[in-house]
Amino acid sequence: MDNTSTTQSSASNSLLARFNLGLTKKKIGFASLIVFFALLSLGGFWFTGRYKFANKMPVKVREFSNAEYPANPALLSKNYQRYANRKLTIIKKDTNRFDFVLEPTNTKTAKVVIKNVDLTLLVPKLPEWVKKDKNLELIALIEREWNRQQVTFPANSENIEISGGDGFEKQNITEIAVSNNCLNAGYWEIALFTKEDNNKSLYYQGWFTFPLGHYKNVFENNNKISYWDYWWQLEHWQEPSDAIIKSNLLRNVIDEKAVNVTFPLDERIISSGEQSRKIRTTLTNNLITWRDFYNNQREIQFATFLAPGFYQPAQPWNTQYWRIGKFEKGILRNVKPVNNSVILQEIELLFTDTKTGEKNKFAIGGFNWQELPKLPITDYAKGLSMPLGIGLPPFFQSYEDLNQKNPDKSNYFSLLLDSQNRWINHHQLGVDGTIMHLDKENPNILHLYLLSYERNTLIAHFLVNRE
Fold first, then answer.
1. Are 196 and 77 a contacting pair, CB within 8 Å?
2. Nearest by Cα to 424 from 357, 331, 358
3. pLDDT of 409 higher than 70
4. CA 283 to CA 302: how far, in whole Å?
5. What is the C-alpha to C-alpha distance for residues 187 and 190, in angstroms, rounded to an integer?
6. Residue 435 contacts residue 385 (beta carbons within 8 Å)
7. pLDDT the model gives residue 63
8. What's residue 438's pLDDT?
């Protein structure tokens, strides 16, 4: 073949290659466009489905058998699961009020209706004074969602209606509870209780996802801000990064003094009520005194609380108790909340991180010393039991009490901070709340207990003497 033919052939091949390359690019571009619109369409369907809402909505209920949930820490009735396989319908009555209708699938089970529940009291609502600061706003919202709020109704409440069935439930239901679980937005549950041997006993428990479309609407009506400002943190357990807490935006300090605070490390661990039942969700053995939580000789682990709202011992939750490993001192303050002129108290406990030397502090403020109950230590569970956060309700509360004490009006707050006033994720550390009461014999002594992750156990007992 001569050089001319070779040159012509090469030119021809080059043109063909460029043509094919152009065709391939067009095909790739067209295919990419199809994929893009397909994903956009799927995303639209997902979004529409996830946030759909209607005035009457059937909602799937999950019920666990004893075999499926052997770690259930509740005191179970001998009638547990005898009235199961229910259906749930949520009915919107007006902007904020809803009915929860538990319907039977057999003739023996009763129909239970929880009527006219004001969900502005169960969906996170910001105290007005935290809106001055984005970090306070974020902490207030996520702590409302990350902490359990269980609201109870007596069977004879005007909000309760029980009908049908074989008569057992109509005669024996003593209390009904609706809970916003300490998980991502939407993980709720309903529980029905009876009384056996003078003890409140659980005989029905159903987990469900509260419709996020309704949740979003109540949230926006509650807070007058867009749900999309915080939806990711509320739905995906997204913790704030290095949030600086400005305590002066919560209260003004009138005076303060160092107080005598004792922490008897060799005192035996105290346990009753919920903590006694949750022994099966505490995974570390040989915990006898408070010192055992802080000697860095072992890992302290608990069963992880997972969606939709159950404990899983096979998935341990690790803790970081070394961050409060060495107690240093206590400070007592008289404070005035920014939203009113009442004088309240605040306690600050200072600790040293036994691994890094960091100075961390735990502040519990906005409570009235004089109004705390006077109790013996054995009755500690009857004290003021509160989660950590800002503008929060107690872990357990009657609906009547909740109506009278809106969380967003509360002056109470509790926060764990480092030396730079940065918020510490106390859930990771392993502290989820406090209990406080005055000494039964000496009202100048306050007993302060720290509750572990998921309130499995007490991890500390401080005695604060204000004299």
1. yes
2. 358
3. yes
4. 5
5. 11
6. yes
7. 97
8. 98
Quick one: which H or E segment has residue 223?
helix 212-223
Q: pTM to 2 decimals?
A: 0.89
Decide: helix, strand or coil at residue 304. strand
Cα separation of 412 and 425, whole Å?
19
| Residue 285, Cβ density class (10 Å: 0-12 exposed, 13-18 middle, ≥19 buried) | exposed
Integer Cα distance of 61 and 85 in angstroms = 9
Beta bridge partners of 36: none
3 state SS of 297: coil
Q: Amino acid identity of 137?
A: E
Q: Are 256 and 331 in contact (CB under 8 A)?
A: yes
Specify the pairing of strand 413-417 against strand 389-390.
antiparallel
d(CA 411, CA 344): 9
pLDDT (average), residues 279-292 = 96
Mean pLDDT calculated for residue range 49-73: 94
H helices, E strands: number in the chain: 8, 23
Question: What's the pLDDT band for 303 if we cut at 50, 70, 90?
Answer: very high
pLDDT tens-digit profile of 317-360? 999 999 999 999 999 999 999 988 999 999 999 999 999 999 99
- 231 close to 184: Cβ distance less than 8 angstroms: no
What residue type is 13 in one-letter code? N
- C-alpha 89/C-alpha 103 separation (Å) is 8
Nearest partner of 390 among 51, 128, 55, 144, judged by Cα: 144
Any bridge partners for residue 413, and if so which? Answer: 365, 390
Burial of 335 (0-12, 13-18, 19+ CB in 10 A): buried
Task: Write down the pLDDT at residue 355.
Answer: 95
